[in-house]
Amino acid sequence: MKKKSGLFIRFLIIFLLFIIITIVISAAATYSIQNNTYRLQQEQRIKEVTQCLAGLIDRDADEFGLMQEYFLANHEKIIIPYDYDGNYIPARDEWENIFSSQYPGEIFGKTIKFGDMSDEAKIAFTTYKYEQWLNTFEKFNEIFGTEYVYYLVPTDAPPQMYYLFDGLRTEKIVDGKSIMEFDFDVEVPENEYPKLWETYRTRMSPNGYDSYDNEYGKTYGYYTPHIVDGELKGIVCADITVNSMNKGIVESTMLEVVLMAIILVTCMFSMLWFINYQYILKINKMQKYMDEYAENKEVSVAEKFEELSDGKHEIAFLARRTAAMIKELDDYMENLTKTSRELFFTKEHAAEMTELAHKDALTGIRNKTAYDKEIIRLEREILRNLEVKFGIGMIDLNFLKKINDTYGHDKGNAAIIKLCDIVCKIFCHSPVFRVGGDEFVVVLWGDDYNIRENLIAEFKGKLEEFAKDDSLEPWEKISAAIGVAEFDAEIDHSVDDVFKRADGLMYENKKEMKAMREG
Question: Quick check: 178 and 83 in contact, CB under 8 A?
Fold first, then answer.
């Protein structure tokens, strides 16, 4: 049982290894591609965040600039609760109340300038605008899923910068109240943030990102400058963390791997079933039949092999060759037995009997019995090799009955002998058989097969010479029809199929000759 299942197990192991290797490579490739796509998306996100924020600031450039300038000079006067929840409406209402009460009928920025207002009004305006923009920055951070969104203001002493809006709130206690602490004069090393300082020097967004590692993982930073009248007022910044092992990507990759595994396993077992059904089971049967033949030496086992010979693949070819081999062995053993019995007779008697059995009495060539044995030999040759090349020629003497009736049977026999002589001379490398009164069969092999068309033409030409020779007696002007067919493995299942086609072609030739005579 182990021997019979060995080939199946080997195929199973090969397929399993293929599936495992394919899944591992595909999973690695899928994860790498998705992770790279995820990283590019994150980079694009922070770029869009800074550009969008910078655009909003540009649209509010006048008031934002007033707030920024006053805040930088007087940040200690600006009080923002540490737990500020983003509701800047109270601060706006307070500013509007103070402005309307102190400057009734005035229009901010037109009839009265910011610098002409009282400190109370300036503080109220700056507080309101700061809370408004702090809410905007923090909302952007929340909506776009960035780590930090902040606003830096360059100083006159690089690498120091002001954090006008910080990504993280810092708390301090003043008079028992929890308020925000603003970070000023923070050192931003150029070697750690080269793209930030490139933005500072060029007044343009950089081509690329700052990349650095922190406790949150791989972080990317992008920057967009805020420029007013050609002067750099500040830099909008956004940081985002690209996780080295993103949970969503892992789950997506695992899902694809599971689906791929299901598809591959389904295909594998389908292929394995097909291979087992079409090939392995047939090999197992052949092994069983060989064991059976080895034990019993029954030639009937050959028929079982022939049942496995359908198709043009190697197993069918092996089955045909094995069936032919068994039959040949059986014939060989039978011949050995027969030979042993025939040793009791003299060699001369055996030779004489064999010759008489296969020889045509009138022409001296092989007879129908010899042709039948030749058929058996050809059948075995086909079993051994479907690409064997041979042809069968069918030749029929015309007007034999007329010759017999008009000139006598001895003249008819003379016509038969003359036709036989012509056939044997022209098809000199092929066996010729007389299978009927006026019928001859030629088995074309080798050189005769290769030049068969030339030989057919030579045969017909010889008969035409006889027909034109007025020195010959009527029975000597022999006429015969010929038909030649070649073995074709695609349409012929036996030698008899080739014979029938040759016979049909011969009769077509006979009809053509008759039509020419009547015409």
Answer: yes
In 60-154, which ranges are continuous DSSP H helix? Answer: 61-74, 89-102, 119-144
Dihedrals φ, ψ of 60, to 5°? -115, 30
Distance CA 289, CA 293 (A): 6
Query: H or E segment at 392?
Result: strand 391-397
- Report the chain's terminal Cα–Cα distance, integer Å: 75
**Beta-ladder partners of 186:** 161
With a CB cutoff of 8 Å and minimum separation 6, the contacts of 505 are 394, 483, 484, 485
Q: Which of 173, 122, 152, 123 is nearest to 223 (CA)?
A: 152
- Answering whether pTM is above 0.85, one says no
Q: Which of 451, 333, 477, 338 is nearest to 399 (CA)?
A: 477
Q: Which of 328, 329, 357 is nearest to 342 (CA)?
A: 357
Q: Which residues, in sequence order, are CB contacts of 455 under 8 Å at separation 6+?
A: 426, 427, 448
By C-alpha distance, which of 299, 290, 297 is closest to 319? 290
Beta bridge pairs of residue 482: 395
Q: How far apart are CA 97 and CA 19, in angstroms?
A: 75
239 SS3 class: strand
Contact by Cβ (8 Å): 150, 166: yes
Q: What residues have CB less than 8 Å from 88, skipping those under 6 apart? A: 128, 131, 132, 134, 135
- The Cα 335–Cα 475 span in angstroms is 45
**Per-residue exposure over 485-513, b if at least 16 CB sit within 10 Å of its own CB, e if not:** bebeeeebeebeebbebbbebbeebbeeb
Element (DSSP H or E) covering residue 34: helix 2-59
Strands 160-165 and 148-154: antiparallel
Strands (E), 181-269: 186-187, 210-214, 217-228, 231-242
Q: What is the SS3 assignment for 393? A: strand
The per-residue pLDDT string of the chain (519 residues; one tens digit each, 9 = 90 and over) reads 444 457 778 778 887 888 889 888 887 887 778 767 777 787 888 889 999 999 999 999 999 999 999 999 999 999 999 999 999 999 999 999 999 999 999 999 899 999 999 999 999 999 999 999 999 999 998 888 888 899 999 988 888 899 999 878 889 998 889 999 886 678 889 899 999 999 999 999 998 889 888 766 788 899 999 999 999 999 999 998 876 446 667 777 788 788 878 888 888 778 878 777 667 777 877 778 788 777 777 877 777 777 776 766 777 777 777 878 877 777 777 777 676 666 545 454 544 555 667 889 899 999 999 999 999 999 999 999 989 999 999 999 999 999 999 999 999 999 999 999 999 999 999 999 999 889 999 999 899 999 999 999 999 999 999 989 999 999 999 999 999 999 999 999 899 999 999 999 999 999 999 888 886
